[in-house]
Amino acid sequence: MANDRDLGFLAEPGDLADWRMVILVDNAARAGLLDLLPGTAEEAAAKAGMHPKSARVLLDALTVFGVVTVIDDGETVYRPGPAMPDGDQRAILAQHAQFIGRWASELPGRLPDPINRERRPWIRPGLAGWLASLGARAKGEAPGVIDRCLAAFPNARTVLDVAGGHGEYGIEAARRGLDVTLLDLPQVIDIVSEWPSVRETGIHLWAGDVFDSRPDATFDLVLAFGFTHTQPAGRIATLFPHLAALTNNGGGLAVNTFLRGSGPVARLFAVQMLIAGNDGDTHRLEDYVSWITAAGYDEPWLEDGDGRTLLLAKKSGTSVL
Fold first, then answer.
1. Mind listing the pLDDT tens digit for each residue in 157-187?
2. Which of 118, 258, 284, 293 has an alpha carbon 20 to 30 Å from 233's alpha carbon atom?
């Protein structure tokens, strides 16, 4: 889009994109309407399999937000406007639109019981779309986050991206010349193994659950980004010993998460974890400190950025770097 406004659902409250624009763009994009411009509403509707009235109403509404513009030269022709989103922005908006619907429809059911007892397994198209939407946002954040990790551990040469999902953080580390392994569940690895960005950077892929299956190797830097808040406290308490076993002595751990009470975005994010229904949550700083040090790391230090907190910790012992 023409501006750099955060289009995701985790924007600061005063910067949040208009919910009407989010839903309009998502529906227009999924219908293929945005890629059929320029053209009249009738022309676009015929190609998209829509009713002409529906196309006209949608396109007219999108002119309000600058996504579409109109040229009237005897007939109304719609063209891409200055705020037309690109592919990554559409993925972010698609996720945002999904969350609008889920907050409205699913939050009431989580109030009496925070566990979703009717969870269905991901099917491949849904999981692939979800990973793409997460990756679109992470792509912009990854360079700065990896900068901070490598400033803390400048001698790191090998990296393990735990529950790396879309792979954008590992991809960024690999672009810096580091040897990166991405660990995630088999169904995730199956999808990202086909992505050109993963293939081109030569990232090693390991399919498994870090709680019970992990590479037979240790690493200079272990990343746990966007993962710990998806799990309940009791399960996360058992995670860090697994991560410590994968970290070289003198190596580093980096956890990118939302700390409970750290700001408005973290408070809002906790609602999303409640709606997800898997007992994930924003955890307290004192809990992270306890878990991390008990696993054999030194006390972590914090760096804040974009609503998330980056916790960095060195593994105790003589450095092997």
1. 999 999 999 999 999 999 999 999 999 999 9
2. 118
Which residue segment(s) compose the domain that 11 sits in? Answer: 1-112
Q: How far is CA 129 from CA 24, 91, 165, 166, in A?
A: 18, 8, 12, 10
Total of domains in the chain: 2
- The pLDDT tens digits for 129-160 are 888 888 888 888 899 999 999 999 999 999 99
Q: Which of 112, 145, 167 delimits the end of a domain?
A: 112
3-state class percentages of the chain: helix first, strand second, coil last, to nearest 5: 45, 20, 35
Q: Is residue 120 part of a domain?
A: no
- Do 274 and 146 fall into the same domain? yes
Q: How far apart are CA 265 and CA 255, in angstroms?
A: 17
**CB 222, CB 253: distance < 8 Å:** yes
Indicate the DSSP class of residue 10.
T
289 inside domain? yes
Global pTM reads 0.86
